[in-house]
Every structure is written in structure tokens, then in C-alpha cells.
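Worked example 4.2. Below are the chains of a multi-component assembly; read each line carefully before continuing.
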Amino acid sequence: MATIVDFKKNGAEPKASLEPLLRLVRADLDRVNATILEHMQSPVHLIPQLAGHLIAAGGKRLRPMLTLGAAALCGYGGDRHVRLAACVEFIHTATLLHDDVVDESDLRRGQESANAVWGNQASVLVGDFLFSRSFELMVGDGSLQVLKILSRASAVIAEGEVQQLITTNDTATGETAYLEVIQAKTAALFAAATRIGAVVASRPKAEEDALDAYGTNLGIAFQLIDDALDYSAHQAELGKTVGDDFREGKITLPVILAFRRGTEEERSFWRRTLEDLDQHDGDMERAQGLIRQHGALDDTIARARHYAAIARDALGLFPDGEPKHALTEVVDFCVERAY
Amino acid sequence: MATIVDFKKNGAEPKASLEPLLRLVRADLDRVNATILEHMQSPVHLIPQLAGHLIAAGGKRLRPMLTLGAAALCGYGGDRHVRLAACVEFIHTATLLHDDVVDESDLRRGQESANAVWGNQASVLVGDFLFSRSFELMVGDGSLQVLKILSRASAVIAEGEVQQLITTNDTATGETAYLEVIQAKTAALFAAATRIGAVVASRPKAEEDALDAYGTNLGIAFQLIDDALDYSAHQAELGKTVGDDFREGKITLPVILAFRRGTEEERSFWRRTLEDLDQHDGDMERAQGLIRQHGALDDTIARARHYAAIARDALGLFPDGEPKHALTEVVDFCVERAY
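Applying the procedure described above to all two chains together yields the following C-alpha cells:
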């Protein structure tokens, strides 16, 4: 039956939210936003105009909030985390600009995407600017250790994006290859964002590694849920976009599981729609139906729960208190938004 | 008369070449090439494949040679210049990949461009990878001063590229705006490449500044000549590509001068061809004719000579010898290749 009972089996409304983290870091986050605004300026007006379009469109600022939260968890009392959180958001924004060019997206955060308004050319070049500016900001901070973490993360993200491009439209992609892609394109920046919190606070390596593990596993869980939501009927009910991955022929875990569990006739359907991109009315609904029928959404969420559990346990080293509570609730939020 | 007498008024064959610089730095340049090959590797095979296509296609390696030459001029005896010269070439290569996407070019260095072979998407993402990798390499070097110089240069290049995008198809662009664009998109990396030579050798600020001035002015002269060559009949005789800028509607100095010196009817021609990109058979020849008729090529080259003279004088502080001779001959080469 085409109900979404599997998505709401708790019955209860989601309780976890980003609120505790936001309360914890609000003052710092205001300074991060001011730093972002200040450093995206350029005498070439198109740059702040285009970057501002995307940055003003909102987004949760999840990655910079994680840097601020991790710094709080480490008892950091200085100023450097503000600037570095802005660097993290600049890298993320540059990636989004280039992603939208690569995916030929027309929408981002519910608004026309920058490439739809100003063209691919400007999006590529302004992305390059934000990326360079992020490194300038980091150099201003002066820590080679931070520079190493973020330059490494940037290279890994690019590798992940190239790998994703290769697996797009390839239904032979397996779960392992998929996991490598999301680890690189999403989790690497989460991990860098949280690791930096320990670095600025000069905490021992064990805590750095713990925050890296927290970020990595949170990032994987986050992306798994994102990929599940793209096929979720519940998501569609909420008026949010679904089906982007399907239209682009991205091979995400819900598809990988449904493909492997499906009949030969179903595999032909996936090949036609995702490899040949030969899509017709009703195909997205059939895709959702097959994914549900094979329990592929439930199991994608189950995989996310696994990584979420690791993320929570990674914080075990740290003392209880508001920061630990807030960062734990981020994990819950990332998974619960599936419901 | 449609001769190219203005381009060959010396009568003599060009004498200056990159040979003296190449002789000076050959051993180091081999190590730069090895460093480039080593650091463009990735488990994602498309990355070395695509990057290797462009890097193997040759190119003069002018920018890394300038870093090596500047280090020699400063009497540097260490190893760091090799890695940093590779960083400079990585940044340049990333820029070329993105440029070809922005310009929708099919050819680069006489071969099919990477975007023509692998698509725009892969070119954008591999460019991002090379750019990130360049920063990783710099961080490995460990000098915040170098990181500052190259991250600043990268941001300026991106600003210049955006500004160029804005002035493309705009015949109202004046010489000042054009100069700002080429200073940012080309000269900034030349300046960073040469300045680094003084930085690794721990030379006084006056020498750093002198090498920066050398690079800046050499870069401006280089780009002016490049822009002249794109309309040169002589260049066409040599079997090299001409007319790319015209086809794309780029507003370079030869056009700016011809436009301002032309009649209203001629300006209509420029507007139709460069603003509306409404181009027909014979238009490129007419453009070349107008540019010649108004002395716009000669005067573009005259402007280049001005910056070349400043570049030569910037080396005045340094002792005579093979490095200074080689770097001076680079300046001569950059201008004389117009003939």
C-alpha cells in the first residue's frame, strides 16, 4: 500500500532540533556572519552580488555552527574559531556554486540558483574567488595545522565530486563506492569543521581525532538522510523538492538497494531512467514505489542510524554539559528529519 | 594595403628566446615536472587523466620557470623553489581548465581542450582539485608568507576573470578597465611567481618588491602581446590560431583602440560582431583590417614595450650575471614574439 507508514513509525513528532546548538553559539554565529559578509566584498560588484544571493538565501550554517560548537566543547575561550568557521562556510559555498553548475540545477535553497540567474561562467569564477578568499582568511589565522586540515579537506571534496560524476548514470555502482563518494564530498568537510574546534583549543590529539570521528560519521549520516529525503513521500507532502537525484541520474543508496533487490524488469526500469535518462510521467512515482517496496528507504535510514550512533559515541571522551548535549542533539536532528 | 609590414618592421628575425632561462633552470625544471606528476595523482583516475592531458600538452612552463629563475637571481641554494614552482603551475593549470569552461573553448595548446573531451563538469571539478592540491603543497612548504602571496594572487586572478566576464561583449570598455583585468588575471600570478624567488632566499623586502614589479610588468606585456597576436596576420601565417577573442567577443586593447579611433559606421561593426556576436564570413578579416588601419596593433605592442621596459629596469638592483641576463631575455622574448 502506498502509505508512508514506514517513515513515521515512531508516531511522535520529531523532537531533536538544531536549537540547543544555535543557543550555544548564537553570539559567535553572528560574528561569523559578519566575517562572511566582510570578506566576500570585492571591487568587482558581481562577486558580492552573486555570493550574497546564495549566502543570504540562508541555509542552516550547519558546518560553521559545528566548528563553533566543537570549540565550545573544548572549552575554547579565544576568537579564532569565528574566522575559521567563516572559512568553512566559504569552502562550502564555493562547492555549492560549482555543484549547481555541474548538476545544471535551477534551484538552490528554494530560490533560483546563482547559475540560473547569472550563468554558469560567473558561478564557476565566483566559486573560485570564494575558495581563494577562504584560503586568504585561513592564512590570516596563521595556523599551518588548520591550513593543512582544510586544504586536505578541499582536495578530498573535489575528488569525491569527480567520483560522483563518474558514478552518475551508472547503475552498477555499489554501496561501497557510494559510501566513498559521500565520505569525500560531504563528510570530509564536517570532519574538518569539527576537528578545528579541538585544534584552536590546543586539545590533545585524542580529542582532535574524536571530533574528527564525530564530524565524519555525522556527515555520512547527514548525506544518507539527504539522499533518502530525495525519494520521500513525506518530504513531498511538506512541499519540499524531491526527485532531483532521480532526474539527474544520481546513484544514491535508496536506488542501489532497490536495484540490487529488484527483478530484472525493475533493473531495466532503473537503467532506462537513470542511465539513459529516458524519463516519463509517472516514473518518479514508480521509483518511489520500488524503493518503498524493497524497504530501501527504511534501510538507508537504518544505515544512517549506524553512523549516527558512532558519531554520538565519539563524543564520549568529553565531559557532559551544554556543548556535548547540543552536539549530540545535532546527530539526532540529522536522522530524525527523515520522519 | 593588406600587408603586415607593421609587424615586421625590424626586418630581422626574432633573436630573444626562453633558451637562456631554460638553460639556467633545466635541472630544477625537471624536478618541477616530476613534482607536478607526483602530486596530480589521485585514486580517482579521471583526475590525473584529465589534468595530464592538459599538462602533457606542453605549454611553456613559463610561470614555474620564472620562480626558478628568480630564485637563481637571488642566489638561492635550497630546494623549496621546486615545490613552489609546481604550486604556481598547478594554480595556472586550474585557471586554464576553468577558463576553457567559461570561454567554451574547444582547443587549448593546439589540442582538444579538456572540456571538449571530458565535459565542462569534469573540468570544473578537476580544476578545483588542482587548486586544492596546490594549497596542500604550499602548506607542506610551511611558509605563511608564501601562502599569503599565492592565496592573495588566486583571489585576484578570480576577481580579474569575473571582471573580464563582465566586460566581454561590452564595447564601452576602456583601456583602464582592460588594464585592470589583465593585471589581475595574468600579471598577478607572474608577480607572485617571481616574488616567491626572493622569499625563499630570504632576501630583503626591496628585492622582493623588485621581483614583484618585474613579474607584474612582464605579465602585463605578455598579455598585451597575446591579445595583439590574436589579430595578427603574421600569427595566422605561422599556422597558429587567431580570432578566438573576436569570436568570443572579448574586448582587448587592439579592439579598444580601433573602436575609439574609428568612425560611427565602424563602431556599428564592432557592436554587431562583439556585442551581438552576429558574425559572418569576412568579419574577422574586416576586424583585422580596421585594427591595422588605425595602428591599433602597433600601439598595443608599443604599450607592451612600455611595461617591458619597466620590467627590465626592475631588475636593476640585482648583480649582472647569467640569471639577470636570462630574465631580461624573457622580457625581450615576450615582446619580440609579436614579430
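Take a moment to check your reading of the output against the notes. The first helix of chain A runs from residue 19 to 39. Chain A has a mean pLDDT of 91.
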